[in-house]
Inverse folding.
């Protein structure tokens, strides 16, 4: 029998997963999207955990806090008395925790760290590093106290699209190679969670050629590996331009004069060139958006934030993600 659910658990059916993996090409704003999603899912009294695994301390930078330790810390409040916690998973610390949990090597594990063995193990075997990282995420997702989930949702700021398939699939490969023992058991458990309905992988994209192509490639790879897709999240989307033909220079000049503004040829030509470039750019964006629609994955668009992403901006993104105003 599964653990009892919090009364506010699984708000709505639009985001039903418990573990949300957020990936995207570098520079698309995946950390901001992951943070906004964690805030939205924490609304109305829920608890979410926002996790990073790349050692960049991107979450701390985004929220303007001290670097995150390898411990779950309260990060922010959400509307309706919700709570967002954060965790930066460190591979060395995760390995020490693993050695203590399965082999009771608490003090001995720390001694190995002093000798450099822990760093050696996680460096020489990068697959082991990813097993430890995903294992910690799985533990946080499934943890219970008094038969109740500690977190209503976990949001993982995951590696970028170029590495996401290998990162998520490493436990499957490890389970296949390890014949017996705790490593095989843990790897099988993580692999099962990542491929279950409890997990959804969301891909963040910009309406630019390279991010869109990497999104298409990532979804193809993840689908072939058996991972469940959540949404394609278009970040920094701009409102559509008014439909119709491009105005002429003569029309621009008349409009400027009517508004009491300078209308010399240099200004008019510059504005006309800018309008033409914008129209060409929007046509390309429309074409790229159509390519993403063809993937058959639900699409959500987040507005461009001219002033950058601060806490107020995260709240705007959060409402856009969760369908609020």
């Amino acid at each position: 029998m599964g653990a009892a659910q919090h009364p506010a658990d699984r708000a709505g059916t639009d985001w039903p997963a418990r573990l949300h993996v957020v990936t995207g090409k570098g520079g698309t704003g995946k950390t901001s999207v992951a943070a906004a999603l964690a805030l939205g899912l924490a609304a109305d009294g829920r608890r979410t955990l926002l996790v990073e695994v790349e050692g960049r301390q991107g979450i701390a930078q985004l929220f303007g806090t001290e670097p995150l330790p390898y411990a779950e810390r309260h990060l922010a409040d959400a509307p309706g008395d919700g709570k967002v916690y954060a965790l930066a998973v460190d591979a060395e610390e995760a390995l020490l925790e693993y050695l203590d949990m399965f082999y009771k090597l608490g003090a001995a594990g720390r001694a190995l760290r002093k000798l450099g063995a822990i760093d050696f193990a996680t460096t020489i075997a990068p697959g082991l590093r990813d097993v430890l990282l995903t294992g910690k995420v799985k533990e946080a997702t499934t943890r219970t106290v008094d038969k109740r989930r500690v977190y209503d949702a976990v949001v993982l700021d995951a590696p970028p699209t170029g590495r996401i398939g290998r990162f998520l699939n490493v436990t499957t490969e490890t389970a296949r190679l390890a014949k017996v023992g705790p490593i095989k058991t843990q790897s099988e458990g993580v692999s099962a969670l990542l491929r279950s309905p409890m997990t959804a992988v969301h891909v963040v994209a910009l309406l630019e050629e390279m991010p869109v192509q990497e999104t298409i490639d990532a979804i193809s790879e993840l689908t072939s590996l058996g991972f469940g897709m959540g949404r394609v999240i278009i970040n920094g989307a701009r409102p559509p331009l008014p439909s119709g033909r491009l105005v002429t220079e003569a029309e621009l000049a008349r409009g400027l004069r009517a508004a009491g503004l300078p209308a010399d040829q240099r200004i008019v030509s510059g504005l006309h060139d800018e309008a033409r470039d914008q129209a060409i750019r929007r046509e390309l964006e429309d074409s790229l958006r159509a390519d993403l629609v063809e993937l058959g994955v639900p699409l959500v668009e987040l507005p461009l934030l001219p002033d950058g992403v601060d806490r107020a901006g995260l709240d705007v993104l959060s409402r856009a993600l969760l369908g609020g105003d």
